[in-house]
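$ ./design --mode recover --in tokens.txt
reading tokens...
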């Protein structure tokens, strides 16, 4: 089993996937609402003007996991996720520092990178798209 985050964007999904692609590497695969078959759900013909190029579904494979997401339809604004953060476990302190710095661009650092009792490096931030992140380089593996 694998649990993957699915992020809801407010019309800026394409920019977000391009940003995360730059931060984490890999290649995002995104489908727009225009690529949706006309008879699937509300259909392409029912889309509001200017919405055809928004992300209907996107995914970015990162290591063993996958991050997915989409733009909500107009009027379906995203609500902040209370009590949820995306956690990244980097393989080195240098990688954790790089990821943290990249995710912080245009965002807000809530806890600067520092050593903790569980991690060589740990930091917390909210990125420019409003998502909370926890970046770690753990001292020991959580699985042993």
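writing sequence...
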């Amino acid at each position: 089993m694998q649990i993957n985050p699915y992020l809801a964007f407010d019309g800026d999904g394409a920019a977000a996937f391009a940003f995360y692609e730059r931060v984490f590497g890999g290649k995002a695969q995104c489908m727009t609402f225009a690529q949706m078959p006309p008879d699937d759900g509300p259909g392409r013909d029912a889309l509001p003007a200017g919405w055809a190029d928004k992300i209907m579904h996107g995914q970015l494979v990162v290591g063993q996991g996958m991050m997915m997401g989409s733009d909500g339809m107009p009027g379906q604004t995203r609500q902040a996720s209370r009590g949820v953060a995306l956690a990244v476990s980097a393989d080195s302190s240098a990688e954790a520092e790089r990821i943290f710095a990249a995710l912080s661009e245009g965002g807000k650092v809530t806890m600067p990178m520092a050593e903790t009792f569980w991690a060589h490096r740990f930091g917390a931030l909210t990125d420019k798209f409003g998502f909370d992140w926890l970046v770690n380089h753990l001292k020991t593996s959580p699985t042993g």
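exit 0
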